[in-house]
Amino acid sequence: MANSNSGVYQLRISVGKTCSILIGKLGNFTFPAGQYVYTGRAKKNLSQRIDRHKKRDKKCFWHIDYLLTAENAQLENITIISENFSNECSENKKLLQGNALIVAAGFGASDCKNNCGAHLLYLGT
Q1: How far apart are CA 19 and CA 40, in angstroms?
Q2: Which of 12, 16, 39, 77 is the most buried (most CB within 10 A)?
Q3: How far is CA 76 from CA 15, 70, 98, 106, in A?
């Protein structure tokens, strides 16, 4: 049975101008200006995770933290798309089947078992 405070969410992020950001141990990446979607999941404490994503001032722990605290990045909105946290990759792959591109290989996908390539996708300008 799914925990009521768990699920899959997507963050819509806009990057105002092309910038280079160091994403923890993953490395330095260039993020073109435009719209991004990050697909994440929380096995528990979903509402607390979302509240954390909204804060700009935080210790960087996850890949997404490095992007969300960057000067040129702005969190536009957050959508909870499933209460089943195991749907993370299938929701991400729906975007990959469209026109979404990977600009930071491995971003948000260190524990991905479905070869998504990344859980942060660039949608263009």
Answers
A1: 23
A2: 39
A3: 10, 14, 21, 23
